[in-house]
Amino acid sequence: MVAIALCAFEQVPEGGALGVQAMLHGRSTALVAVRRGAQVWVYHNRCPHFSIPLDYQPGTFSTYQGQLLMCAHHAAMFRFADGHCIDGPCAGAYLDSVAVCERDGQLWLAEVQDGPAGGPSCQEKHHDA
Ligand code: FES
């Protein structure tokens, strides 16, 4: 398994969200990273309600108390820790999670099979939903 760099850990705001673009399986893919303390979770930036981005303008996300990520369109509320929608029109659905790990201040995607060589193994420390 090949890991590729996503962003610096500190770029993800405490209690907030950061939109990032990454090559996954040869396709440029919009992702969103959310952080609480030392934990970061990464999801596809795609609301399960209408399969559209969660941000109301590119890179601008709404979060609540470092716990919830809100879709800008119809206010679905997703838990940081597992992407579960706890309120809104798609309650019960989940965001699509992406496995990441943190090493040396950098977040690495761990699920990329066909990315460029380089980066650490993500098997020891794994932040996952
Ligand atoms: S598109 Fe996200 S709640 Fe409707």
From TrEMBL:
The record ties this protein, via InterPro entries, to: Rieske_2Fe-2S, Rieske_2Fe-2S_sf
GO terms, molecular function: 2 iron, 2 sulfur cluster binding; metal ion binding
- Report whether Coiled coil shows up as a keyword of the record: no
Q: Name one Pfam family in it.
A: Rieske
Q: Which UniProt keywords apply?
A: 2Fe-2S, Iron, Iron-sulfur, Metal-binding
Q: Does the keyword Cytoplasm apply?
A: no
User: Which PROSITE patterns does the entry link to?
Assistant: RIESKE
* Domain Rieske as annotated: residue spans: 4-109
Residue ranges annotated as coiled coil are none
Source organism superkingdom = Bacteria
Q: Which PANTHER family match?
A: PTHR40261, RIESKE DOMAIN-CONTAINING PROTEIN
What name does UniProt use for this protein?
Ferredoxin
Species annotation: Pseudomonas fluorescens
